[in-house]
Design goal:
The protein is of the alpha/beta class and 240 residues long. It is 48% helix and 16% strand. Helix 4 links the parallel strand 3 and strand 4. The longest helix is centred in the C-terminal third of the chain and has 17 residues.
């Protein structure tokens, strides 16, 4: 069954907007787990505009499910942070310094040698590695040469086309990329702009996805539906 990892960046954004500690990020992480989430995801950025580096240390002490840290390994501070905390999984994302949100996967062909080198650093520390890739068979095939344990398929284009009513067009490249990854023995994660309207269709088409990481849409839904109810609705979408 596909696991749900809740990205709590938006909780940190809300907290940081007023200073102090409301909402309490650690309590929200605990509650997400208590309400059924099978993982907690954070994406600390160099400017610490949402998740702070200290948050990672604090979360490491209390997360009892899978802990997933996302970020760009070309920032040495990020590499040091991950190695110091040894999460269940590190997801490598090719963000630029001041990027608003992730908007593309690795060019696994051009970056092959670099990815081999940095992935071995995390593998040697006993950390599972996932790398963010566009839904391209070519990029997936090259990803398999890097030594990564998993890929995370970037699903923004899927979400946009799905919202426009082009479901079959939206899912087609995801299916091909996922099938290639499975054949090559890679684990498969998915994330970006997934929500309650498009999640079930994705999982029905590709039931062997290991994990989805969802933050923005889930937190937005929770404003209206409550966090516990929202997490259960997302888990239901994963099982139906």
């Amino acid at each position: 069954m596909t696991r749900l990892s809740v990205n709590i960046n938006k909780i940190a954004t809300l907290r940081n907007s007023r200073g102090g500690n409301n909402p309490n990020l650690l309590q929200v992480a605990k509650d997400c787990e208590r309400f059924g989430a099978e993982g907690i995801t954070v994406h600390p950025r160099p400017d610490e505009r949402h998740i702070r580096y200290q948050d990672v240390y604090d979360l490491k002490e209390i997360v009892t499910t899978e802990f997933n840290i996302e970020g760009n390994p070309k920032e040495q501070k990020f590499v040091d942070l991950v190695l110091a905390n040894k999460p269940t999984q590190v997801t490598l994302v090719p963000d630029t310094l001041n990027q608003l949100t992730s908007d593309h996967g690795w060019d696994t062909i051009k970056e092959l040698n670099y990815l081999k080198e940095i992935i071995s650093v995390f593998n040697n520390a006993g950390i599972r590695v996932s790398i963010f890739v566009d839904p391209s068979v070519e990029m997936v095939k090259a990803a398999a040469k890097t030594g990564t344990d998993r890929i995370e398929l970037y699903t923004e284009s899927y979400a946009k086309e799905f919202a426009a009513g082009e479901k079959e067009t939206a899912i087609a490249p995801i299916i091909l990329a996922a099938a290639a990854a499975k054949e090559l023995g890679l684990g498969i994660n998915a994330g970006h702009d997934l929500d309650r309207t498009n999640l079930a269709y994705l999982i029905k088409a590709i039931p062997y996805i290991d994990e989805v990481s969802i933050g923005h849409a889930l937190i937005c839904d929770a404003l209206y539906l409550g966090l516990e109810n929202t997490i259960q609705l997302y888990k239901r979408a994963l099982t139906n």
